[in-house]
DNA sequence: TTTTGTCTTGACATTATTTGGCAAATATAA
DNA sequence: TTATATTTGCCAAATAATGTCAAGACAAAA
């Protein structure tokens, strides 16, 4: 798994000197589970990311961006044409936006 | 589900006037399953994409690119910051490449 | 309209993947 | 050492994805 997201929350947590236990408690999950999230072994849930952004005092949009990026990265990391794939996606997002604008 | 990939194979198939039944046979799946792949209800497997590129006489790299793009699109389509997410991913790909180059 | 072949859909069982917790192990700090 | 924090392996439960069957829809031709 990728570490784009997990690296970020780990460094933020250490910065603020909060133990995993404490964040895990608020998220209502086991410490072990939280640990795995921070190591990139488990994926946080969307709502958890939002709660975390609050606890770690960081913009939730930024954290969600990294969280999504992580998922994308996992898909294309092994592909040789990773960058081209991103281009294809970008094109299609634009295409879709046009469609929506028309409607 | 997204249609970046499915639209492509559908138009190629129609161009060549091949019935779904025939492609399904080579892929050793049910016609219904193939239909769903072409409608974007089911995901083709990697090997199936390669077989398809052969049957449809198209570069397998191109088809795989669309196939991957589809998966990525599904993840970020609902996100408001879709484009920014792609940027984050692109940055991290570059970062990783640097690391590999160093090693 | 009926027939024929093609395509599509929904429901379902099967399989694969992901999840969270527990307990034990390891690391770090006091 | 003792206490606290983090990590790991393993399991069961939950969730998601897959493929098939059977039935329906659709289109072209007879």
Note down, in words, how this protein is organized.
Two copies of one chain form a homodimer. The first copy, chain A, is mostly helical. Chain A has one domain: Orthogonal Bundle (434 Repressor (Amino-terminal Domain)), CATH 1.10.260. Chain A is 75% helix and 0% strand. The mean pLDDT of chain A is 95. Chain B binds a DNA duplex (30 and 30 nucleotides) through residues 19-21, 29-33, 35-36, 38-39, 41-43, 45.
CATH secondary-structure class of chain A: Mainly Alpha
Largest sheet of chain A: none
The low-confidence runs of chain A, each spanning 5 or more residues with pLDDT under 50, are none
Assembly classification: homodimer
User: If helices are DSSP runs of H or I spanning 4 or more residues, what is the number of helices of chain A?
Assistant: 6
- Rg of chain A is 16 Å
Helix content of chain A: over 70%
Reported by name, the CATH topology of chain A is 434 Repressor (Amino-terminal Domain)
Please name the CATH architecture of chain A: Orthogonal Bundle
- Given the C-alpha coordinates, what overall shape of chain A results? elongated
Structural class of chain A: mainly alpha
Instruction: Say how many strands of chain A there are.
Output: 0
Order of helices and strands of chain A: HHHHHH
Mean pLDDT of chain A: 95
């Amino acid at each position: 798994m990728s570490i784009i997201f997990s690296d970020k929350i780990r460094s933020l947590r250490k910065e603020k000197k909060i133990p995993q236990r404490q964040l895990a408690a608020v998220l209502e999950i086991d410490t072990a589970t939280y640990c795995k999230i921070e190591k990139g072994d488990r994926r946080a849930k969307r709502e958890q990311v939002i709660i975390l952004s609050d606890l770690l005092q960081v913009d939730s949009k930024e954290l969600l961006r990294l969280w999504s990026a992580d998922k994308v990265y996992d898909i294309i990391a092994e592909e040789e044409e990773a960058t081209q794939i991103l281009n294809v996606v970008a094109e299609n997002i634009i295409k879709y936006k046009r469609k929506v604008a028309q409607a």
